[in-house]
Amino acid sequence: MNTIHLFKVEGIDGEEIDFSAFKGKKIMVVNVASACGYTPQYQQLQELQMEFKDKLVIIGFPCNDFGGQEPGSAEEIQAFCSLNYGLTFPLTRKVNIKGESVHPIYNWLLHKAQNQVMDTEVTWNFCKYTLDEEGHLIHFFPSAISPFDDTILEWLQT
């Protein structure tokens, strides 16, 4: 399985997010949290989503695995993101990224044996994965890398 388009995940609102619907668009997968020092990146991610909406889909994966920084319910997370950042990109139900119950999409993203590109390690909130229009993993960016990083902007402009 070397394409993210084979995955479906539960959205924060209970609706299914089918990654095959994003064929032909670039995808950015980000593990997000509401009480993190990197939480202001939500604003930059929203700006990228708006500016590149015709060719980019950002999917936020709320996760409480890093510092317990996403303790809220689905409703609390949605309200926080809407009120503070006006998010329009999809969020999933809260997922696990480490431990025994790693979400299948992250299991795929983390292991070269599955994604055929690279092994990665999510060490904190707001790590970013970029995928091409065919759903192949392109790059991994750690939390400290801004969504406005030159490498990300160049990728979006190609």
How does this model look, in words?
- With 158 residues, the protein is an alpha+beta fold.
- It has one domain: Glutaredoxin (3-Layer(aba) Sandwich), CATH 3.40.30.10.
- It is 27% helix and 18% strand.
- The protein is built from 5 helices and 6 strands.
- A hairpin with a 5-residue loop joins β1 and β2 (16-18).
- The mean pLDDT is 96.
Task: Outline the fold blueprint.
Blueprint: E1 8-10, E2 16-18, E3 26-32, H1 41-51, E4 56-62, H2 74-85, H3 104-110, H4 112-115, E5 128-131, E6 137-141, H5 150-157
Parallel strand pairs: 3-4
Antiparallel strand pairs: 1-2, 3-5, 5-6
Q: How is the main sheet built?
A: 4 strands, mixed
Mean pLDDT, all residues: 96
* Helix coverage percent: 25-40%
DSSP strand count: 6
> What is the CATH topology assignment?
Glutaredoxin
Task: Fill in the keyword field for this structure.
alpha+beta; four-stranded mixed sheet; 158 residues; Glutaredoxin; two-stranded antiparallel ribbon; 5 helices
